[in-house]
């Protein structure tokens, strides 16, 4: 009888907010904080794992094992400035970034956490916009936000909102993607135009008073990666080219695998506006951040197949083979320029653009 009553008890009444701005009381652990969590986050992210509001989300190991034989776990923090930009916002970025970090390892992303650090005085409606964006992107990516945390700090102690998301997924059986797996003769592929996100963020800040018609490429890549691994399991390595851009990923591959890599400037897809933007500001587009672009290493006999798979997907229509792996100078990355010369592409030292994700 008691069990029956518990199973059919009415859902808990959720709190609501009547104030317009965040105060320190919203981080104090009491009713104000509970109302904030209910109104802004539980309403947006609602699912059966989150609804009990325990200190942890709970999953069946049997259900997880249905997806693969290993667990993938990642975490990332987002401090992008500005919070909203053409093509995305900090909430969309937090979902896509964590989903992609799982997917590039061959994992099926399943569950995410969301921890918010909020500055005193932030508009409640701004938080609602961010939460709604996160919920919408999580639905597109097929993941659930199942637990989280909220902290409020004094005015001036953070810049409006910082977000930390962690994610878990399950790696499919017999999938062993690795940075050190590249071999001479392998082909380097990307799924489209590079550098859009970094250029978008800088333009959105207005520091340079430039009007560049560029949008962030922010997107969850798990659907594209799943299609690739379904039909091309021999792929050796996948990585999303975020901070440090294409150049950094290529250097990581060359160093970890003990190989050389050469890419072609004429084959590397860059938007004309991004090229012009970088020329004006003295930036190198190879180091610009991306939030919806992957770099992939495939055996030479699989390159055409992988390229066709990407080009048939909405997030890979601009996919291209941009270079090859060699054995002439271990750890070295070079670019064959449009003029027929070669230049060294080093690992980025420092940060071209701070707070781009």
Query: Secondary-structure element order, as H and E?
Result: HHHEEEHEHEEEHHEHEHEHEEE
Tell me about the biggest sheet? 7 strands, mixed
Shape annotation: globular
Which segments are poorly predicted (pLDDT under 50) over 5 or more consecutive residues? 1-6
CATH architecture of the largest domain: Alpha-Beta Complex
| Radius of gyration over all CA atoms, rounded | 22 Å
Kindly name the structural category: alpha+beta
What's the CATH H-level homologous superfamily of the largest domain?
PurM-like C-terminal domain
Distance between the termini: 52 Å
Give the CATH level 1 class of the largest domain. Alpha Beta
Question: What's the structural domain tally?
Answer: 2
Number of strands: 13
Strands in their spatial order, largest beta sheet = 8-10-7-11-9-12-13
Q: What percentage of amino acids are in beta strands?
A: 15-25%
* Global mean pLDDT: 94
Q: Give the number of helices.
A: 10
Summarize the amount of helix as a percent range.
25-40%
The third-level CATH topology of the largest domain is: Phosphoribosyl-aminoimidazole Synthetase, Chain A, domain 2
